[in-house]
Amino acid sequence: MKQAERFYRNFTETPRWNSFRVRVETSDLYIRAHSDLSGPAERIIRKLREEVRYHIERQSSFLYSFTPVERLERCPEIITLMYYASEKAGVGPMAAVAGAVAQLVGLELAQLSEEIIVENGGDIWMKITKPAIAALYPGGYAFSAVAVKLRPEQTPCGICTSSARIGPSFSYGKADAVTVISPDAALSDAIATEACNRVKHEEDMAKAASYAMGCGASGAVIIFRDRLVALGAVELADPMRGEYNEI
Description:
It is built from 6 helices and 12 strands. It is of the alpha+beta class. It has one domain: T-fold (Roll).
């Protein structure tokens, strides 16, 4: 199957970081660091993919379930992260896989670079030393220029987005974009998935944002048609003003 083009990566060039893309089978990560770490990144991704693949052989429901599954003993860190995120958010463990991979790749590479940003299918783990912004792409026109400002003291953190309009992932909801920030990218990923599932009408937005905060998010942004709801430690910004480097 042809990999989807990550159009949003075309808008974020900056001299602040060395940017590189690492692809391993169906995994496609865009990474920013102070040097090209594509070699170490590829080795980490291959290891994580093998750990997930082996665990699915042990527990097939881990792959297919839309709800939390029973924990098995003696699991690698990525599986433990996904179990935890699944249980907190009330979704299947694979809802957290992209965020979990981004987080564990980022943690390893952070030993080699003072700043590191790992994006995996729109799900980001980051550690920064100066402010930056993460632009949101809801796919409509009402909020075509909106971003979330991230400060160094908020990181490391995960900032993950789920959409019923953009991307191949299945959603029960209709939100244009649900972005969740938390200290754990796997958790942000799982929460964003379920919060997006919950938005089918405008009146669902505030409830979905409250759900996200109740699961452990530090901030949430929900965009649905011409409405935006933000809750928690969220500072909105205009990416067109160019005040901060865009991630």
